[in-house]
């Protein structure tokens, strides 16, 4: 991940970066990775050990800026955790609150729609990050994990907008393990995940499942998607070539083989994956999470991310 960050930031023509630091685990991990990539001299990018990370000192501190952007409803706990991380790793930070934007939104549109207000604040944070990016010549680094990206659990042109994303290939459960490896403060690792869109907001309560359950589902979903790409498409060519089947006849073959009704060219992959998932997960879970994956607007235009470590 450090190699990825160094290579891509340099390729974009930048030396310095900026990260929105909320006090949550994802942004804390990304800020720490950026700290190790651009602010300290490490012995080896391939063989960093725990002691080296723990004792890493800033020699080029100004290469990274963490921007704290609390709204009217941001929890004091999250702000304190963000400050604690900056103190622990000697990270340069600045507080640029968005309370005035939040207040104007509430005065004009009201505060009853918590999600709409939270999405507005997320977009104001990203606008603020890009304002700093332009003025200080810093590249904006993203903080969305693979679980969020697959489910579309984020704000378009808000937290999902960035130049690079070093953790986009990691599930949320893997982020927790990485956070422990990087010696993040326990208060960040142990608190419940929240996008802090509004007071008391909880990711897991909003989605309806724990991240452990979600990631187990997503891993299996990806496994079946790979099965489709590597086997079913090849099978289609073989069967249609040998038996001269029409497209409609092949859909009928798939429908019979997988016991799936109403297949067409646009839905065959999703429907067959969902059918395969019934061996592992309850119907309601498949319906809820597969629907999120299918209707995820972000997947049409993803940010460049590191997919392999």
Automatic annotation (TrEMBL):
Organism superkingdom: Bacteria
Pathway(s) it belongs to: Cofactor biosynthesis; NAD(+) biosynthesis
Entries under InterPro entries matching the protein: NAD/GMP_synthase (IPR022310), NAD_synthase (IPR003694), Rossmann-like_a/b/a_fold (IPR014729)
Domain NAD/GMP synthase: 2-242
EC top class named in words: ligase
Catalysed reactions, semicolon-separated: deamido-NAD(+) + NH4(+) + ATP = AMP + diphosphate + NAD(+) + H(+)
GO CC list: cytoplasm
Pfam family, one: NAD_synthase
One annotated GO biological process: NAD+ biosynthetic process
EC number: 6.3.1.5
UniProt GO MF annotations: ATP binding; glutaminase activity; NAD+ synthase (glutamine-hydrolyzing) activity; NAD+ synthase activity
CDD domains: NAD_synthase
Keyword field: ATP-binding, Ligase, NAD, Nucleotide-binding
Signal peptide: none
Similarity annotation: Belongs to the NAD synthetase family.
Name of the molecule in the record: NH(3)-dependent NAD(+) synthetase
Record organism: Helicobacter saguini
């Amino acid at each position: 991940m450090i190699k990825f960050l160094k290579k891509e930031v340099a390729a974009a023509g930048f030396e310095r970066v900026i990260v929105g630091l909320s006090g949550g685990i994802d942004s804390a991990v990304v800020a720490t990775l950026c700290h190790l990539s651009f602010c300290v001299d490490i012995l080896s990018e391939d063989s960093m050990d725990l002691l080296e990370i723990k004792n890493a000192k800033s020699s080029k501190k100004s290469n990274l800026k963490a921007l704290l952007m609390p709204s009217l409803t941001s929890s004091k706990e999250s702000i304190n955790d963000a400050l604690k991380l900056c103190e622990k790793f000697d990270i340069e930070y600045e507080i640029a609150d968005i309370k005035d934007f939040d207040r104007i939104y509430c005065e004009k549109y009201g505060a009853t729609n918590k999600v709409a207000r939270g999405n507005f604040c997320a977009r104001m944070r990203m606008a603020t990050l890009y304002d700093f990016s332009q003025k200080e010549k810093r590249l904006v680094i993203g903080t969305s994990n693979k679980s969020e990206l697959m489910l579309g659990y984020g704000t378009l042109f808000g937290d999902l907008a960035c130049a690079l994303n070093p953790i986009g290939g990691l599930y949320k459960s893997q982020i927790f393990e990485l956070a422990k490896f990087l010696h993040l403060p326990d208060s960040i690792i142990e608190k419940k995940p929240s996008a802090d869109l509004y007071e008391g907001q909880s990711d897991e309560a909003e989605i309806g499942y724990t991240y452990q359950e979600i990631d187990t589902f997503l891993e299996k979903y990806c496994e079946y998607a790979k099965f489709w790409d590597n086997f079913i498409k090849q099978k289609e060519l073989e069967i249609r070539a040998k038996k001269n089947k029409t497209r409609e006849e092949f859909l009928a073959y798939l429908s019979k083989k997988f016991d799936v009704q109403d297949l067409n060219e646009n839905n065959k992959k999703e429907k067959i994956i969902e059918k395969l998932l019934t061996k592992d997960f309850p119907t309601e879970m498949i319906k809820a999470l597969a629907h999120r994956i299918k209707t995820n607007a972000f997947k049409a235009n993803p940010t460049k991310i590191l997919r392999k470590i």
